[in-house]
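In this section we walk through a basic example: taking a raw amino acid sequence and producing a predicted 3D structure, encoded as discrete structure tokens. The instruction is simple. Fold the sequence below.
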Amino acid sequence: MKLLLLISGGIDSPVAGALALKAKHELVAVHFHNTPFTDELNKQKAIDALKILAKKFGKTIKLYIIPHGFSLTSIAKNCDRKMNCVLCRRIMLRVASRIAEQEGCGALLTGESLAQVASQTLWNLEAEHSAASKIIVRPLLGMDKSEITELAREFGTFSNSIKPALCCTIVPSQPATHSSLERAELEEKKLDLEAIVQKAFEGKEVIEIKQ
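The resulting token sequence is shown next.
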């Protein structure tokens, strides 16, 4: 199957990508670049992680880099701040679904691991996934951090993933952890979702990560 990997600069998503490549799936990737709420290092870490995977598995990987700062600003200005992470993720899934459709991907692939961070509680995952028009594959969902870290070392991505970079500065101090679809959809009524998704998609940069 051809999968669209949502890749960050962290430890988890490169491992999800490696597992897919190990299972002989084809990968396209997308990175949501949160400037001005983060720095260029996170984008570079995502690129470098894909370079490691491309070399290890002998694959060329197409990467979409999506400007995401405008989306985050729109959410922060118009919506309940506690819902930032859930609404951010729902916009990512909408944009990723559009890319997956264009690329002929059968599903989205993420590095989500249950309850590791605020956006990944069971309630929040339930509130988020309906924004995607594709199936979401989550191979790390039941793993703990030590298991994922061990795999990252095995696949050779760990040392890149732990390089310093600025974490997203717009994350609320008390993000919602028990969200619901109804609450998410109510907050989204305050946004022009189609315009946000279109602006993000039009600002894309596409590069080929060669083996």
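Looking at the output, two observations stand out. Residues 2-209 form a domain with the Rossmann fold fold (CATH 3.40.50.620). The chain is about 45% helix and 15% strand. In the next section we compare this with other chains.
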